[in-house]
From TrEMBL:
<dbReference type="GO" id="GO:0046983">
    <property type="term" value="F:protein dimerization activity"/>
</dbReference>
<dbReference type="Pfam" id="PF05699">
    <property type="entry name" value="Dimer_Tnp_hAT"/>
</dbReference>
<dbReference type="InterPro" id="IPR025398">
    <property type="entry name" value="DUF4371"/>
</dbReference>
<dbReference type="InterPro" id="IPR012337">
    <property type="entry name" value="RNaseH-like_sf"/>
</dbReference>
<dbReference type="Pfam" id="PF14291">
    <property type="entry name" value="DUF4371"/>
</dbReference>
<dbReference type="InterPro" id="IPR008906">
    <property type="entry name" value="HATC_C_dom"/>
</dbReference>
<dbReference type="InterPro" id="IPR006580">
    <property type="entry name" value="Znf_TTF"/>
</dbReference>
<protein>
    <recommendedName>
        <fullName>TTF-type domain-containing protein</fullName>
    </recommendedName>
</protein>
<feature type="domain" description="TTF-type">
    <location>
        <begin position="134"/>
        <end position="222"/>
    </location>
</feature>
<feature type="region of interest" description="Disordered">
    <location>
        <begin position="1"/>
        <end position="36"/>
    </location>
</feature>
Amino acid sequence: MSQKRSVADFFSPSSKRAKQKAVSPELFASTAEDSETLQEQENAQCFVSIPLEETVRSIASDDACPSSSGHMDRECDDLSASCAARHQPDSATEFTASDVDVDHAGQLDISKFKTEQPTQPILNPFPSMKYGKLSRSFNSNWYRLFPWLEYSAQADAAFCLPCRMFSTGDNEKSAFVNGGYSNWKNALERDGGFRKHENSLVHKTCQASWVSFTQMKAGGQSRSVATHLSDAYSREVQENRLYIARVADILRFTAVQGISQRGHDESARSENKGNFVELLNLFAKYDDIIGKKLNGGAANAKYVHHSIQDQILEILSHITLTSIKEEMKSSQCFALIVDETKDLSKTEQLSVVVRYYLNGAVFERFLGFRNAEQLDAKSLLSYVKETLNRCGIDSQLCIAQTYDGASVMNGTSRGVQALFRQEVPQAVYVHCMNHRLNLVIVDVCKAIKPSAFGTVWEQTCTISEENGVPKREKQRTKRLPLHLEQFVLSEGRPVEEESPDSKETFRVKVFLPVLDHLIVELTRRFAENNDVLCGVSALHPQSENFMDVSLLKPFAEHYACDINSVEVECKLVIKLLQRIEAERKCKIETFLQLVTVLEEYKLAFHELHKLSVIAVTIPASSSSCERTFSCLRRLKTYLRSKMTNNRLSDLAVLAVERSLANKIDLQRVVDMFDAAHNNRRIRLH
């Protein structure tokens, strides 16, 4: 009695002899004969000089030749009649469903690569399924009728190898590709099951691709029509990708340079079609591919419409913001800088900038403009959070926030900074130092008493005399009120009488009052966050209080650092810096130099490294937002005042962050453009 074996043994190289015994020679002979006939039919259908799609459609309409079709129908009827009786292979070695190692069969179940042949195991018996009172199961003779067929013992289902390996997406939902076909009752129906799938246009296309791929891998010299068409398709895709990449490159160039793209009249009759179209025409003069697409292509497939420009600009801006997000992932924290202004169309624009430390440098990156429909604190905060979320930035990593002196921003209870600190407590508010200093100067100037009236009067008299204007010398003396006549008036020195020494007069009347008001205003306006900012100054190498633990303590407590570790690290860092300065013969004088040194020893000085990174991240002013406002004035001019806010923000991101924009891989832009638009008239994959 023969020993039962598993499917794993059946597929092992050592069981080659058993495999030959398991399948009858007649079955192999008929399979080879049918495969040879099928190959001749495929060659006859593939080597005609017409497009592949027309070839496949003709095959689908003709189905098969009448003689072969009748022969196939008779064989299908015979197999359908014998299906219930089970196929008994002429073999001394038999396989039962219980012998299948399901886990191992899941690894070897069906083909995994294009170079493999269909997996066609022979089980005795195959698992059966109930259809009313009858039982049906897969029949191994079907391999001979349908060479593309493969069977999964694990799923008890049939699959199509060509469609699984060469499907272009139209056939992904087919049971022969996903899940498997297991309706054995209707498997051999003329208008369903295997026959319907085999005669489908999608299957014939995949079958032709499979034959061409097999011929190419075999090293044959002959190339099928499908191969030539595949090469032509690849060339077309490459040309299309090159064209879209050039379009994106021109848009990037105009955006980075801050120049307009569109023209007033972009028709063929116009002498000036705008910078974008004119640059594309310039490229077409020196690039045959661009010229062919632009001048010889379809009118609706040139991709120069303003909507296409908006989409590509959005992709370029998205990639730039993604680069910023990736940089911030490597940073431990960031600071938020926000300011607001009106553009040319009187629209309130909110500028959002983030500041962070990375690899020995501090970066301030622009995240875009946001149209501020409402100017209350809650609305402004929602706009800021929306911008951060759109860029994928976690607001909980914010350690500081900087705004101008507007009351809606710096209000202690209902301002934006107060509302933001309710959600992110460690985000200390820093009023822009430049705005503070400007307010100090304004207040001091208001306190100075005007004293130049006499000088102005003298100049007026001089001009009047030169031009012959008579000087009024006599003036009617007003009569003193009666109640003043009751008092005795004595002569004395006028209060406004100047001292003989002019320098002393200036010092007393101008210099000293200005200094008094200046000190008062500086003390009043720069006293906020004093404890935290003093801790920052204690980390500056040139500060008198460098590494003063008493000043660092409030700073460390605010950012949840271990005070004991900070005290120990301060003592050791001073000695470390002295040794490094002696060895490297350079003096550490700036924040960045200190952070760079601590970066090398951050495992030993973890707390001080964290505090130093926070110190260099805290912004001193909102000047970066002011620079974005300068860019806004260049972009939104009188002739571009109707620009949408999304396009404005995308252009501003590319113009401000030009260093990142110039590094964008244009092939990535083409891929994203292709993924976002599946129904394009231009093939990009």
